[in-house]
Structures are given as structure tokens and as C-alpha cells.
User: Which sequence fits this backbone?
């Protein structure tokens, strides 16, 4: 039986319990700490492109959209 579950620990004492269960071969801890963030894409990629590159990309995207509309 191989079911995978995502759990959120409410109390830090639970970490030791999980590792104790792993030692008893009851479970397998896949990752120690997975941080869940809800970062907006605009924040994530802010500053990746220079203004000039962003403008060129935007112009290119608009051109491609127009070409698709003409098909």
C-alpha cells in the first residue's frame, strides 16, 4: 500500500513522532520541510527582464496574437 499524504504539523513535537514512526518502518518521510507560498507571478518574476526586454517581448506577443487572428 503506497498512499501519499500531505500533512501540516500544528505542534513541533509531532516532528519527532513522525521520525520515530519512520524508524519503525511505519511511514517514510519524503521531505523535511515544504514551505507553501502563494506568491503572485508578477512578484515572482519582477525584475527578471529589463524594461527594454519586457517591452520587446510584449510587442512580439502582440504581433504573434495578431498573426493568429489572421489565420
Assistant:
Amino acid at each position: 500500500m503506497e498512499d501519499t499524504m500531505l500533512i501540516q504539523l500544528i505542534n513541533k513535537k509531532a516532528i519527532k513522532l513522525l521520525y520515530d514512526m519512520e524508524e519503525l518502518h511505519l511511514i517514510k518521510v519524503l521531505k523535511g520541510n515544504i514551505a507553501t507560498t502563494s506568491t503572485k507571478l508578477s512578484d515572482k518574476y519582477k525584475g527578471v527582464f529589463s524594461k527594454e526586454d519586457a517591452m520587446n517581448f510584449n510587442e512580439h506577443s502582440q504581433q504573434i496574437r495578431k498573426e493568429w487572428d489572421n489565420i
